[in-house]
Structures are given as structure tokens and as C-alpha cells.
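Protein in question reproduced for absentees:

***
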Amino acid sequence: MVFISPLPVLGRANINHWIEKIFMAPTAWIRNNWFPNAPKFDGFYTDSLNYLILLFFAASIGVVLAFAIQKSRLDCLKIELFTKKTLVYYLSWIFLIYGFSKILGVQFPENIESSATFSFNVDNLDLQFWSYMGQHRGLVNVLGIAEILIAILMLLNKSRKLGIILFTTALTVIVVINFKFEISVRLFSVILLLAGIFCSIEHLPNPKSSTHTDYVKIQNQKYWFAHFNFRKPIKLFIIAVMFISAIFNSLQV
């Protein structure tokens, strides 16, 4: 669900295009037939009916793939570890984007048009929150630095567990704030939280089962699926690309 969620950032343009191209027609069909009073398809925006339908498709595809993997001869444990590692890198990239966007003044800018008018509008909690944060640049910078540090912890092998714990804790706070102030990324933030929880769950095999032997073997040997150990130059290159793309992407958030 995290990977299929459209993001308005560089590096996702082609993916977003194919998501809309593949799922726009079936989504529109479901809306027209199951929700006749809903407006026509206007994009996969978070917290919208379109996005909910898209997540339904994503969950269905996930169930089918999981069933197929279980029935195949593929090593499910290796696939799970590889999926978690890929997901951790993706989540850290998202935190880098939003961290830099805060520091660069793109998210929660100091000057918001008509802030004096909507600040007294008790019904527009979303804009009230943005206005308040924009007036406290010190707090915004601290939050941005914290997100970047958490992302770095998630990228390093020795600190990855701590980074995931901090990521999940931060997302819990973000989800509460989003619901409290009716910020229009509530569903997406919940999905990120669930992804963090998924990454934090350790595989707990039964010592008496045959899968335990495979688990110990994977932990003790250097399978690249299990540990995802790139050579240092390659890993440094990937991390550098993540940072550079996050800085450019943060200007579009």
C-alpha cells in the first residue's frame, strides 16, 4: 500500500503515471456503480474515495501475491527480509523529503497568504495548524532535523532498529495531529505508521520447527537477501542519491 500510494515527488512520476493509467478505469467504474452520488474521478488524493478504492486494489493484489509465494517454492523468509529492507529505505527517503522541506521553509512557510483571515476561522483547523507552525520556525527546524536524523538511523545497520522505533513513535504523534487538526493526509500517515510497525516486527520462529533452522542459517550466513549488504561504495552511492533527491523533492512538497 505504501509503494502504490502516489507521491508528488521526483522519482515517482512514472510510477504515479502508471498507477493512474492502470487503476483509473476500474476505480471510476466502482465509483459510478457503487457510489453513484460521489463526484467523478479526479485523481488519487489521500483521504479521498478514489484513494480508498486504490488501497482496496493494493490489498487485493498483496493477498494474491502472498498466496502465490506461499504456494511456490520461493523462500518466504528471504522475501520478507528483503521486503522489509526495501521498505525501510523507502520510509527513510520519505522522512528525508519532509525533513528537508521543513528546514528549507517549504512545509509550514512563515508567510501564508490570507493567514490573518483563516486564523480566526475555527472550522479550518488544517490552515490554523499550518499558520501556527509557520510562526514558530525554531520548532519547525527542530522537527525537520529530527526527521532527517531518524532517516539516517534507519539507513545504518547498527542503528536501524532504533531508527524504526523512533520512526514509528514519530508517526504515531503525526497521525494524532493529523486527525486532531483534520489535516488531509490522515489515511496516508496511518499507512506509513502501519509500515513502520511491520518493519519493527521481528520474525519469531518456533525453535522446534523446520523453519527455525532456515532462519538461523539466514542469520548466520551472508545471504544478500537477508542482510542486503551492498559493498560500501554502492551503498554510499544509494544513500547519496537518496539525500540529493530528497533535497530536490522537498522543494515540491
Remarks:
- Residues 1-74 form one domain.
- The chain has two domains: 1-74, 75-250.
